[in-house]
Amino acid sequence: MSLGIVISNHNMGHKTVECITSVLHSDWKDLGIFVVDMASSDDSVSILTAHFKDQITLIQCPNDLGSCGGLNIGIGQALAAGCDYICCLGEAITMETDALSNMMRFMESNPNVGIVGAKVYHKHMPHYIQQFGISIDFKNFRAHTLYADHVDDDTIPNVVYCDAVSACAMLVSAAAIKKVGLMPEDNFLYWDDTEWGFNMKQAGYEIVALADAKMYHSASPIRRCDNTKVNYYLTRNCLNFFMKYTRPEKCMKMSIVLLRSIFEAFYLHRMGQAHNMAQSDLAAMNDAIYGLRGMASASRILENDENGLGFVNFFEEQESVYMEDNDPFLEQVIRQINPNILFLQLPSPNVTTIVRCQSILGIKDFHYKLEFSDNVVYIDKNYRMLATREDAKLVKNYEASLQLFLYAMQPAILRRISETRGIEF
Question: In this structure, are residues 228 and 301 in contact, taking their beta carbons and an 8 Å threshold?
């Protein structure tokens, strides 16, 4: 077989069935499907066995090794079976019938390309892109998901050259894997695909995302995980990545930028009374500083007390709103919460005005009457709202609190970099 499909499943049997079904409907038939079940506690194994029998190779792993650990097991099986290319898919992914064939033809025509990613859309809002490549930004020390929540149109290129693509929808050449190695497993969850793409580019391979490979992700843009694991691993692994790869002359700036980001998250969680999430921010930072990798200890993953219900409840109660800046994606999200809500063309004294911003903590000028109006809400890119006078007071105290945090924590990050990379500051 020329192509191996690898899917890591953990307690998402029904979603994985949908994913595999879309693969079987693909017009690329020379393939084998390798599903790695990561110690699922539900009935995933029986569901998959009943649906597909001998159409898939099902590998049962007794321990949860994280998404990268599961994918690596499947990749190993695909390589052993002689596959020239491996396509990694997330359980919540479905695809167009020609997605795989378009990816394969592009890869076979461009041997300098190590990874091809798909153009992934929001399944419930299919005109909007969820992701179309990842860019690693060593100026601002973050990874950008390209074209996220962008309406699909003719301005978007057909081929995006980027630094990485999501492991939920990527095609990788066996030759590149044999040269670079498998995905880095010490991330456990998140940033494994970004670091893998970085390593591929360092080895001389191109990374692209292909518009002709259309796939769909079923996760809601406002869905919240039941526990703090997403927040913990994203924070820990981001900090670890940049401590590991940032050029020495930029490490001082990097430490300030990332500490600011971590404290911003901590402060926002405190404002929202999400105490477990706030603890997760600090635990992730400390574990990165002290070199704790892989699967986090059980004490690190807590119940998610940031449920997003404030945002949902607020718009469920509104009969009409006025949006100061046109934002079609946010409007669609609000309409999914409240289909009957009316969006006014002009502001009204008795109707809430929505003001968009990058971060509610970055608001410097409350330009409405009395500095803040009870009929105005600020909503940032992560759907956090500033909606009360108490919120405004906390925002005004943010900068002074941040400076104390930076003074206390920057030496610890620089010390960690010195110990692991031999850089003196």
Answer: yes
Considering only CA atoms, which of 82, 328, 293 is closest in space to residue 192?
293
**pLDDT-derived band of residue 371, with 50, 70 and 90 as boundaries?**
very low
366: helix, coil or strand? coil
Q: What is the pTM of this model?
A: 0.84
Q: Which residue has the higher pLDDT, 175 or 270?
A: 175
Q: How many residues does the chain have?
A: 425
Question: Nearest 5 degrees, angle CA 285-CA 286-CA 290?
Answer: 120
C-beta pairs of 151-154 under 8 Å, 24+ apart in sequence: 151/127, 151/328, 151/329, 152/121, 152/127, 152/128
Overall average pLDDT of the 108-136 stretch: 96
The answer to whether residues 30 and 3 touch, using CB atoms and an 8 Å cutoff, is: yes
- What is the secondary structure of 327-359 as a DSSP string? -HHHHHHHHHH-TT-EEESS--TTSEEEEE-S-
Spatial separation of the C-alpha atoms in residues 209 and 232, rounded to whole Å? 28
pLDDT per position as a tens digit, 259-300: 999 999 999 888 877 899 999 999 999 999 999 999 999 899
Q: What is the pLDDT of residue 236?
A: 98
* DSSP 3-state percent helix, strand, coil across the chain (nearest 5): 45, 25, 35
Q: Supply the DSSP symbol for 296.
A: P
Q: What is the pLDDT of residue 94?
A: 97
Q: Can you tell me the distance from the alpha carbon of 287 to that of 283, in angstroms, rounded to the nearest whole number?
A: 6
Listed residue (229, 240, 230) closest to 298, CA to CA: 229
User: Residue 308: what pLDDT?
Assistant: 60
At which residue do the structure tokens 């999400």 appear? 274
Hey, CA dihedral for 91, 329, 152, 132, is it positive or negative? negative
410-414: long-range pairs with CB below 8 Å, 24+: 410/255, 410/256, 410/259, 412/289, 413/239, 413/243, 413/255, 413/258, 413/259, 413/289, 414/251, 414/252, 414/255
CA nearest to 266, candidates 254, 252, 279, 248: 279
Q: Give the H/E segment covering residue 299.
A: none
DSSP output for 389-417: HHHHHHHHTHHHHHHHHHHHHHHHHHHHH
The predicted pLDDT at position 72 comes to 96
Residue 370 has pLDDT above 50, yes or no: no
Could you tell me if residue 169 is left (phi over 0), alpha (psi between -120 and 50 degrees) or otherwise beta?
A: beta
